[in-house]
Amino acid sequence: MAVIDHDAALAKAGANVSGFWSQAGFLARRYPLGAVGALLVLLFVLTALFANFIAPHDPLSTNSRASLALPGGTYWLGADFMGRDMFSRIVFGARISLAVAVGATLLGGILGVAIGLMSGFLGGWFDLATQRLMDIMQSLPLLVMALVMAASLGPSLQNTIIAIAIPLVPSVARVVRSSTLSLREQPFVEAARAIGMGEMRIAVRHVLPNTLAPLIVLGTAQLGSAILTEASLSFLGLGIPEPYPSWGRMLSESAAEYVRTAPWLVIFPGVAISLTVFGTNLLGDALRDILDPRQRT
To answer: Domain 40-57+77-295: which topology?
Structure first.
C-alpha cells in the first residue's frame, strides 16, 4: 500500500496556489483594464449568486408609505413608485441578467458550434446552404432580430433566452467555420484519417478543441451584448415580465414619468447595466490579447 507524503502534498498545493497568484498578478499588471473588467464581472456574478444574502428587502414587496422614498436610511438607493426597495431590485436584477446572458450565450454557442463545425468540415452543398442562411440572419441587426423573435414567442424568461440566442448563432458559426477550414488540412487531421478515424470523430476530437480560443473571446463579447439586448427587450415590454425585477423594465417603468421627480429610479439601473457591459467588454479585449499568439513575447 502506497504511503502518502502529506508534507510533500501540502508543499505542492502551496506552490500551485503561489504560482496561480503570481501569474494572475503578472496578467493584472500587463492588462490593467482587463483586470478591472474581470473584477466587475466577478462582482456581477457574486451579486447574482448571493442575492438572497445581499438584498436587505424582498424585491417584490410593496409599501405605499415608502413610495418614491429618497436614497438613504432604510432604502439605500431609494424606493420606486410602488415602494419597492431599489437596491434589492437591482441586486436580484443581476440574477435575471446573468441567467439570460449565460443561457443565451451557451445556447447560441452550442448551435453555432454545431453548424459551423459541420459546415466547415463537410463542405459542399451543406456548406453553401448553411452560409446563405447565416447571411440572411446576419443581414438583420441583433436587436431587431431579437425583437422579432421575442414578439413571436411572448414575454417570459425562457422565450427571452431563445430570442437572444438565435441571433447570436451566425457569428459563432462563422468563427468556427473559418477555424475549421484552416484546421481540416493540417497534418494531424490527415494522420487521423490515415488510421481510419471517422470524419465526425475527427471534427469533435481534434478540430473542435483547437477552436476554443476564439470562442472564449467571442463568448465574453456576446455576454455583454446579451445583457444589453435583454435590457432593451425588457425596456420595450418584450423581455422579462412582471413581477420579476429586470434592469431594463425598471428603466421603462421610470424613464418617462419619474426621470425629473425621482432620477434615482433611472440612474441606478442604468449604472448597473453600463458597468456590467463595460466589464465584459474589457475582459473580452484582454482575453483576445492573451490568447492571440502574435501578442505573446
So the answer is: MetI-like fold (1.10.3720)
